[in-house]
Design a protein that fits this description.
This protein is α+β, with helices and mostly antiparallel strands. The chain is built from 4 helices and 5 strands; from the N terminus they run E-E-E-E-H-H-E-H-H. Strands 1-2-5-3-4 form a 5-stranded mixed β-sheet. Helix 2 runs parallel beside helix 3.
């Protein structure tokens, strides 16, 4: 199998995923997943689509991650892995969609409005 690539986004995080045959090694920005995401919860989030299809030890995942925070990055990576798995085998899409991995979360930070301290917050009102 040749290398399959896919893109995952969440908030301002972008994950470029390269999936190839291998032993289940996940490399993020030239670091191992345990080094890049020390939290076991974030590691679990990243591996969810692979665990669902029971192909954790079948593919090597190489990732270029940029932007956002660690939560957004882990969810962007999950979407990227999901899209790459669908490119490999389209029949898996239904199982992955049922878990909610296929849908791109569109929520992003609202822009700051002029004349206000934040997007929706207003300055304190003074009657006199």
């Amino acid at each position: 199998m040749e290398v399959v690539n896919a893109l995952g986004r969440r908030k301002s995080a972008v994950a470029r995923v390269f999936l190839s045959d291998g032993t289940g090694k996940i490399t993020i920005n030239k670091k191992d997943i345990t080094e890049y995401f020390p939290s076991s919860i974030l590691q679990f989030v990243v591996k969810q689509p692979l665990n669902k299809l029971e192909v954790v030890d079948k593919y090597d995942v190489k990732v270029n991650l940029s932007g956002g925070g660690f939560t957004g990055q882990s969810q962007a990576l999950r979407l990227g892995i999901t899209r790459a798995l669908i490119k490999i085998n389209a029949d898996d899409k239904a199982a992955l969609r049922a878990e909610g991995f296929v849908t791109r979360d569109p929520r992003t930070v609202e822009r700051k409005k002029p004349g206000r301290p934040k997007a929706r917050k207003r300055f304190q009102f003074s009657k006199r």
